[in-house]
Amino acid sequence: MFDIDEKDAAIVDGIVAAARSAMTEISHYSQEDADRMVKAVAWAIYRDDRALELAEMAVEDTGLGNVPDKITKNKRKTLGALNDLMKEITVGQQSHEPELGLTTYAKPVGVVGTMTPSTNPAATPVNQAMMALKCKNAIIISPSPAGARTAYRVRDFIHAELDRIGAPRDLFQVIPQPINKKKAQYLAQVVDLIIVTGDQTNVRDGYRSGTPCIGVGKGNVPVIIDKSADLKDAAQKILLSKCFDNATSCSSENAAIAHSDIYDGFVDALRGVGGYVCSPEQVAEVEAGLFQGGNINRHFVGQSIDKLFALLGWPAPSEDVRFLIVPQDSVGADSPLSGEKLSLILSLYKADDFEAAKAKAFEILDYEGIGHSVGIHTTDPSQPEDLAASASVARVLVNQAHTFGNGGGFNNSLPFTLSMGCGTWAGNSISENLSVKNFYNVTKLVRTIDKPEPDPEQLFSGFE
């Protein structure tokens, strides 16, 4: 389907064959053995010196985000995922329910290929590798070119830990240099499952490959600030979420929609945590700088606030400024600041009531980010239920810092992940957080049970 020269095809075929051989070597592994591999992969990035080295390398090579937050991401996501995974049965018999006549067995899906983004060149491969090896699969990483050196260093650390427990190294491999699109496309064709996180062109390629694919959608999170909200709490959570790793997360808030009754108070609360409210002239300058030729200017993505001010040609900001606020009225192609920005820039809208705020959030999502998520800050328990019942998204977060809650949190029940499915709304095969259940097949042993046959007269009642 995709063109590739024979030499590159042979390279990819070789590492896939090695992965299959490694899976054969561990075919006898128990759940305990699989769990030991998961812990080995987790320790490969969680150890303090390695988390630091990988964070520094990622920022140096990609120019995205910042070292302290990447350390936090490398450790927090790994710890959360490890905690989730240790609770799961993924090898052999999962359940036995005599009353239903069902016994369930988990089986590997095979060799997993994954395309990983430059925003998380260490955390994403490790997160997915933990899930894959938990189910006795092998995994092959196709990193972004900018994040390749980090991915190879991750490989070195994982191989060292696999050696320590006597597991085969080829369970975790990285496509060799040079990294290119054709190798990634061919990998997608020859593995058993392909997972694509990040660039939407790559997601479409994954689905076109003919291989079962899990691709994730684009983020552009709007968050509603109701008149009943705790404004200081909402502003503080938006600050923490928006500024984490310089807004490289797809779950970072991109727009806030505040009730008109508390709009001014909310603006004051945002100023109080470091928000810089742009004048109309400055909003125009931000739009012109951030969007060029209809696309995001990559020089703005994942940069510090000092760098943003320099790129805009503005005097250096005061020390208390953390992010930009760009007031907006409209949504769509003619208002590109209503879309995903991947930078320390928050669009701000005003709505006269909850219904208007909800309509504005849906308008934003319809323009960009459909299926991903939406947030709300409120003390009215009916509003989140209304929002969840009507929104075309996979996740609705209530009174949370979106970046920390959307991919799994220690204070919510979502599984820890760096890949969020957005359902058929965004052309995805899943509408949930990528989790370990996406990495195993299920066999059901089915026995007969005493079960009454349905009564046709009862089922067709009213249709006589």
TrEMBL record:
The UniProt keyword set, sorted, is:
Oxidoreductase
Source organism per entry reads Octadecabacter dasysiphoniae
UniProt entry tagged with the keyword Calcium: no
TM ranges are none
NCBIfam families tied to this protein: AcylSulfactDhSauS
Which Pfam families is this protein grouped with? Answer: Aldedh
Q: Which domain of life is it from?
A: Bacteria
Query: Mind telling me what this protein is named?
Result: Aldehyde dehydrogenase family protein
Q: Which residues does the UniProt record annotate as the domain Aldehyde dehydrogenase?
A: 4-270
